[in-house]
Amino acid sequence: xxxxxxEKILAAHAGLDKVSPGQLINxxxxxxxxxxxxxxxxxxxxxxIGVKKVFDKDKVVLIPDHFAPAKDIPSAQxxxxxxxxxxxxELSNYYEVGRTGIEHxxxxxxxxxxxxxxxxxxxxxxxxxxxxxxxxTGVGSTDLAVGMAMGxxxxxxxxxxxxxxxGKPKNPWVSGKDYILxxxxxxxxxxxxYKTLEICGSAINDLSIEGRLTMAxxxxxxxxxxxxxxxxxxxxxxxxxxxxxxxxxxxxxxxxHYEQIIEIDVTDLEPQVAFPHLPSNTRAVSQAGNVPIDQxxxxxxxxxxxxxxxxxxxxxxxxxxxxxxRTIVIPGTQEIYLQAVQEGLVKTFIxxxxxxxxxxxxxxxxxxxxxxAKGERAIATTNRNFVGRMGHPESEVYLSNPVVAAxxxxxxxxxxxxxxx
Length: 421
Prior knowledge:
This protein has 14 helices and 18 strands. The chain is α/β, with parallel strands linked by helices. The protein has two domains: 5-264, Aconitase, domain 3 (2-Layer Sandwich), CATH 3.30.499.10; 273-416, Aconitase, domain 3 (2-Layer Sandwich). Strands 4-3-2-5-6 form a five-stranded parallel sheet, with helices on one face. A five-stranded parallel sheet has the order 16-15-14-17-18. A four-stranded parallel sheet has the order 10-9-8-11. It is globular and about 60 Å long. The N and C termini lie far apart (52 Å). The mean pLDDT is 96.
């Protein structure tokens, strides 16, 4: 019996010829990641261990992005805590505001994660890097502290669910966000609990790296331990322009064991909208009905990349945001922000009546830069719409791709891009 791509990566990092689902292993780590919320907690746990130095100053990455630029005194202290630790440990990969962005947009952009890596991060959306053919997963602060100290951590090898996406969408507005929402809508928010979601098929072959990053990012919304798309020529073209070190491509064996195989034909798929209060509560945008909105958020580690902003700007060009709607656009990194300025996207957004923010997680987690009041509704390109996720527990968040969000900003209700083009 062969192995899946995830099993091969874990076996290699455990120094084993073969691993099987359910097996407990110790795996060496290539990247250990934390942000300004989780970093201070992990640092406290690290200090309890009694180790004086991190296992490798080039493999620990600290990024202030959730409440950064600092929104208040407590968040300023959290940002200072990770800065001070990075100084003390002489970390190569601490990035201050103005030189970074949202962590899960920044690491792929800068080539800090490459195919074949094992990555842990004290953030649930660390699974993003599976889009590059890496095993990446979120962990708690204690596990992260152990990772920083020892350079390895234990895993239970997950079972794998294979999702095969075939066909080519007839609808030109369908994107990776719609693919992953369709998958989550089909299997539910716990349908892949502590399992690998291995995503493949002709529709994935045609999808951009940005779209793949969006899909892997939301694997956790189906409960997955990790999402992964095996690296191909498109991946290697992306990585070779950015990588800071060598990489290795792993692919599943033809006779690998899968707990389940799910096949989805995307030919007739429409843009999807996840209604409150679960990412699995999905329906086609044509079935959304008349849902007035108060706020639109375009950005986040899910859809804050240049391709996402460009698509939204194409919808908003020459149009105005509805007078009763506030629209917030947040580029994922400084590099993306600069490109959006240079190519006129920021001008398009501002002329339409949107605000454009420096990179931050901000409203996605109900942090700042877009908190919802009681009874308000938002449509967002973010990844979660749980109760109170973006503000008041009696507010509502709807999830969509960037073009649906942009069209909704113009019409003041959840809308399809065909309605404004």
